[in-house]
C-alpha cells in the first residue's frame, strides 16, 4: 500500500557528543545504539528502533531522510516508479543501518537524498502494548511523541512535488503559489496517514534542510518546550505561535550545529479527498506565522 | 484504496425539532438541508455535505452509519468482499440521500446497518481553501471539528472485528480481552487515516449504539464542552477525563433522545504497522476511564 | 495589617514514612526537616520554611492549621480580638516548630485548632530572586506551587464564619445557604490576598477535615495530576472537573491515611469589595461539581 | 485599608467610534455609557461600572489612571500622604465621571496623572451573584476578565517607585536594576491583592504609556487572542510568549490609535512578605521576553 510515514532523518552535526547531549537531554530522545560512528535515537512514543541518526561531519545539514513503506513489496514497486520518473535508484544492503533491513535510495530533483525501507526492528514505546499508561515515567526535556516531518528547500518545487505525488503516491495538503497562481513555491505533502505533512518543500537553494520537526502534545507543551530551550540557552528562532499553513502550533530553534528544529502540535486531519489549500505568496507571512504575518530574515536564510 | 473514514451516522431521535435545536446550538453543527423528513447536519471543519442525519422515530438509536471510500471502484470491490464474507448487500440508489450518490448497504454480524459511499457533494469548511484562517467567526456551542467515531455494542465481537479487518481492510488499534486472552470483548478499529478509531465494538446487546463522538481541539475545549452542557442542562454521563484506551481526552453526555454523545480529543496517531494494544478485562475500568478506574452503571447500561 | 494567608497545615497520618513517600514523590513536595518526630515539607514555589507538617497518629485528620500574619504586632492584636470573641488563646513558644517563632493558638467554634504566626525562616523558592526561571528543573510528581486552602466541616457555620470575618478580618467569597436563605451551610473565606479561599467550612461534624488543597498551574496540570495519581495507584475521589463555587478546576484524591487532597487551579481574583456569591442548597451539586451537578456519597461522607 | 487595585484607565484615542468598535468587538468589552463625549467600558467579569474610558484627542496615550480604595476615609488619608510626599492634589467632584463619586487627583513624579476613588456604581458581572455559571453566554472577541495593569515610562524610576511604596503602601514584586545594582530602571508594583502587578514603570520618557493589559484565563486564551487579532488585522507587537518577570503568559498588540494593549494571564500570587525579585539589566531581554531573550525595537520605542 506504499508509504506510511517519514521514518527517519540522518542529520549532519559538527560535534557528535554535544549533539547527543542536546538531542537526549533537551529534545529528550533516547539513544538506542551506535554503529559505524553514528548515533541512533528514538522518541519515547515511536515503535521502531530509531527515527533520528546523528552523523559527525564538517558541515551541518541533512544527510538523507527516509520513508517507511507498509509492505516489503512496496520497495520494488516504488523502485520502478522512481526509475520511470527518471531518478536513479540504488539498493542499500541489509545491515547498513543499525536495526534496519534493505533500503532503496535515490536523489530527489532538489538534490536531497531519500530512502525507502520496510524492515526495522520494533523496540516499542515506553508504555508498552498491554494495559499501557498514557505516558511513561521519567521523561526528559521536550519529550516529543515522534519525529513529525521535515521541511527542505529546493529550486524546482513543481517537479519535486510531482515526484512525491506521482511516484510516492503522496498528497498535497497545502501549497504556496505566486500571486498569479502560475508558479508553485511551496508544497506540504503527506502519505495516507492523516497528518498535515510528512515532508514540505519551500523555494530556495537545493539540497538544504529548513527544519526537522518533532511532535508534542498540545499548546501548553509548546510553551514548556520554549521554556526548556531558554533554560538550556538554546537559540530560539521563532517563539510560540500558530501556523496558518496546517493550523499547527509551533516553536522553532537550533540544534548545536545550527540545524533548525521545530516542536509542532495540532493541525488538522487529512484524507485522500482533502482538497489542497492554496496560499498566495502575498499571504505567505500569515501562512507561515499566523500572528506575526511576516517572515523573519533568520527563518528564510538560516538553512543547513 | 478503500475506506477513508466514517463519513456519516443517521440517528433516530424522538422529537426532531428539539434534536435539531440541540445538535445545532449545543453541539454546534450546521443544518445543511432537509429531505424526506430528515435533517442533514455537518460540522464546520468537514468538507463533505453532511456527517449527521437526524430521523424522527419511535425509539432512539442508530439507524445506520456509513464509510466514505476513496474511489468509486472501491464500492464494487468491497461489495464483492462483503458478499464473500457472507453478508447480503443492497444498492442504495443515487439521490436517496441529499447530496449523495449511490451507496452499498449491508447488515453487520452485530445487526447494525452499514453503508459505503463515494459520491457526496463538497460543501467545504467554513474557512475555505485559499489563505484560510485557522477557525471561523461565529462558532456556536461545542463546535467540534468533525464526527470522529461511533461505538456500538454486539454479541460477537470476534466476527464483527474480522469483518472490518478482512473485508473493510481496517486495523485494530486496541482490543479488550478476557483475562485469559481467550475472548475478545472489545475492539477499536481505524481505516488507514491515522485516527485512533473510526468504529469501536463492545460486548453487549446487538444493534445498539453506545455513543457517537465528535472531535474537539484540546483538553481546554473538553472543559468548555462540559461547561456548555451544564449551562444548557444537558445530562453529562461522564465528566472530563482521559481514556486509557486511545489516551484521548473526553466527556460523555446524552442528546435529548438519550443517544450518548462524546466530545473527544487527542489520542495518538496510528499507522498500518501500529501494534494492537491489548487491555485485559480486569483493567477495563482503567482502559475506559483512566482516572476513575471503574465503569459506571450508566456507562455500561445506557444504550440506544 | 493582619492575616496574609493560610501558612501551614499539620496532618495526622497513620504511617509516617509511607506518607512522606506520598507527599514527596506523588504530590512532589520537598522534605525540609524533621523535628520532634514530625516531618516538615514545602512546595517548590513557597518562600517560607514549610507549609505542611506530618505527624504520625492513631487516626488521620487535621492536627491544626495556621495563618501567617503580616507583622509581629498583629499577633497581639488578634490575640485580644480572639479573646473578646470568647475563645481561649494560648501562646506557643518560639522554637516549638522547626524554623518558626512564637505562635498564638486557639480553638475554633467548630473545634478545630488554629494558630497564628509571623516569624518563619525564609528558605526561598527553587528559582531564586535574581533573574529567576519561571520554574525549576527536577520537579517531581504533581509539583504544586503551594498549599492553597483547607476545607473543614463543622456544625455551626454561622459562628465560625463570624469568627473569621469579625476576628480575623477575612472576607466571604461565596456561601451556601438553605433555599429559604435562613441558614448558612457553607462559607468560603479569604484574607486580603486575592485568593478565592484560604479556608472553607461546610456543614458537618465538628473537628473534621474535608480536604487540603494544593495549587497547580492550569487545567492541563490538573489532567497531569490525575494521570500521576492513577499511575501511582492513588485513589481518586473526584476526577478532573470544574467547581461552580470559585470556578476553579480540580481533582480530589486521598493520601495514604485517607486525608483528602485536592489539586486546584484558576478561579477568580477577589478584593475587599468583591460581593459574596450565594449558592442555594438546591444548587449545591452544581456549586461543588459544576459538571456532575450532584454530590457523591464519598465526597460528603469521607472525612478525617 | 488603602488601595485595592487599579480601577480604571482613561485612554486618548484618535477616532472615537473606530476605537469603540475595537474595544467592544476585538477586545470584547461592553459599552456601559457615554458622558461628556467620552465612552465608558467594562469587562464582563468586573463588578464596577467601568474600567476603561475612551476620550477622543489629537494624540493617543494615557489621559490618567486611577486606583480604587477600600474605604471612603482612605481618600483623605492618602490625600495627606500625597501632599506630604510633595505632590499637589486636587479634588475631582462627585459626578465628574459617569457612575463615580468624588476622587483625589495628583501628578506623579513621572508626569502621569493618577486618581484615587472609592465610590463607583456596582453593575455586577455577567454571571451574577446567585448560583452563577463560570462564564456567560455571548462573549465577544478576546473577552478578558478585567483590566489587569498598566505599564508606564518615566525618567526617575526610584522616585515614582518610592511614591507608590511609601504613599500608596504598595509593594514591589520585581525590579530591574543596572548590572551594578546602583540604579533602578524598572519596577512592578501591586496593592495588597495577590496580583503580580497593578502598575509598572520602565525607564523612558516621562508621561508615556507603554501598555494597558487585560487579563485572560489561560495560555490557550492567549492563543485565541492572537488568532482574533490576526483575523481582525490588528497589528501584533509581540506574539504569544512568556514573561520572565511575573512568569505571565502574554501577547501585545496595538489599538487603532497605537496604544499598546496586552492580553496577559497567569503569573504567581504575591503577598506582603513576597521578596522583591531583581532582574539585572543584562538579563532584561529574558526578563521581558523569556523565550526571545532580547527586546525588540518596537517594544522599546512605540510609546503613546
Task: Provide a descriptive summary of the structure in words.
Four copies of one chain form a homotetramer. By secondary structure, chain A is α/β, with parallel strands linked by helices. The first copy, chain A, has two domains: 3-117, 2,3-Dihydroxybiphenyl 1,2-Dioxygenase, domain 1 (Roll); 146-301, 2,3-Dihydroxybiphenyl 1,2-Dioxygenase, domain 1 (Roll). Chain A is 19% helix and 36% strand. In chain A, the strands form two sheets. Chain A has a nine-stranded mixed beta sheet. In chain A, a hairpin with a 6-residue loop joins strand 14 (236-242) and strand 15 (249-254). Chain A is globular. The mean pLDDT of chain A is 97. At the A-B interface, strand 17 of A face strand 17 of B.
Short synopsis of the structure:
The structure is a homotetramer of 304-residue chains. The first copy, chain A, has 304 residues and is an alpha/beta fold.
Give the topology:
Four copies of one chain form a homotetramer.
Chain A: E1 3-13, H1 16-26, E2 30-35, E3 38-42, E4 52-56, E5 61-69, H2 72-85, E6 89-92, E7 103-107, E8 113-117, E9 146-154, H3 157-167, E10 171-177, E11 184-190, E12 199-203, E13 208-215, H4 219-231, E14 236-242, E15 249-254, E16 260-265, E17 277-280, H5 284-288, H6 297-301
Largest interface (C-beta under 8 Å) = A-B, 46 and 46 residues
Low-confidence runs of at least 5 consecutive residues of chain A: none
Gyration radius of chain A, in Å:
18 Å
On the 0 to 100 scale, the average pLDDT of chain A is: 97
Major sheet description of chain A: 9 strands, mixed
Number of strands of chain A: 17
Derived from helix and strand composition plus strand pairing, the structural class of chain A reads: alpha/beta
